[in-house]
Amino acid sequence: MWVEFLMTSFIVVIAPGTGVIYVIGVGLSRGAGASLAAATGCTFGILPHMTAAILGLAALLHTSALLFHAVKWFGIAYLLYLAWSIMKEDGPIQFEGDADKGSLVGTALTGFLINILNPKLSLFFLAFLPQFVPAQSSSPFGQMLLLSGIFMAMTFVVFMGYGVFAGYIRTHIEQRPAILVWMKRSFSAAFLLLGIRLAFEGR
User: Where is it mainly found (predicted)?
Assistant: First the structure.
């Protein structure tokens, strides 16, 4: 059971998604230090969804179309805002000018909001975690807490790996304006497409 959980969790965590793209973008634009804040925010953004799954609140999100779509459209709006802010160079991902500008707290908060405004995460954990809790477990609540902690730790380590690698690449491209402009447009387009995809996804 543990092997299956670790393998499945690793596949889920390493797969490119909004959080991964955000951490890589921060690492490429501002270095490994800023990507640590981004990874921390994204990791803590998972916590409310896991808590909801453990307490059964995610079931309410699943059954309430109004609540689900409210969270979903807030998430879409935030992704579109990120796409716009990257092009305007006034958000957490900034490819031009001083790489140290921008608050690390703000960078972490953006990562937190990216994940907390994705309603599908609650539904995912509602379906994911119980599969790895043995039916004969004397403390299913404690077991789910343990699995949640392992998943979050894995998320942080993998995201930091992405961020450090992106920071390393940044040292080789920061003096090449043409590449930075291309990257800025690419990450802006990525968040725009993620927002559009979320808008057209069903439950």
Answer: membrane
Please report, as a single letter, which amino acid is at residue 78: Y
Q: Which two structure tokens, joined as six digits, stand for 149?
A: 């902690």
Q: Give the Cβ contact number of residue 111 at 10 Å.
A: 27
Distance CA 53, CA 124 (A): 9
| DSSP class of 131 | G
Fill in the amino acid letter for 190.
Answer: A
Q: How far is CA 162 from CA 106, 133, 159, 187, in A?
A: 20, 30, 5, 15
H helices of 56-139, where?
Answer: 57-63, 65-88, 104-116, 119-128
Task: For residue 130, give Cα distances in angstroms to 15, 148, 183.
Answer: 21, 11, 40
Q: Kindly report the pTM of this predicted structure.
A: 0.83
Instruction: With beta carbons less than 8 A apart as the criterion, state whether 76 and 195 touch.
Output: yes
CA distances in angstroms from 124 to 30, 49, 75, 95, 105, listed in the order given: 31, 9, 16, 33, 28
In 3D, which of 127, 118, 129, 112 has the Cα closest to residue 59?
Answer: 127
Cα four-point dihedral sign 103, 105, 107, 109: negative
pLDDT tens digits for 167-183?
Answer: 998 888 777 777 778 88
**pLDDT single digits (tens) 101-117:** 568 898 999 999 999 98
Query: Smallest Cα–Cα separation from 29: which of 116, 107, 130?
Result: 107
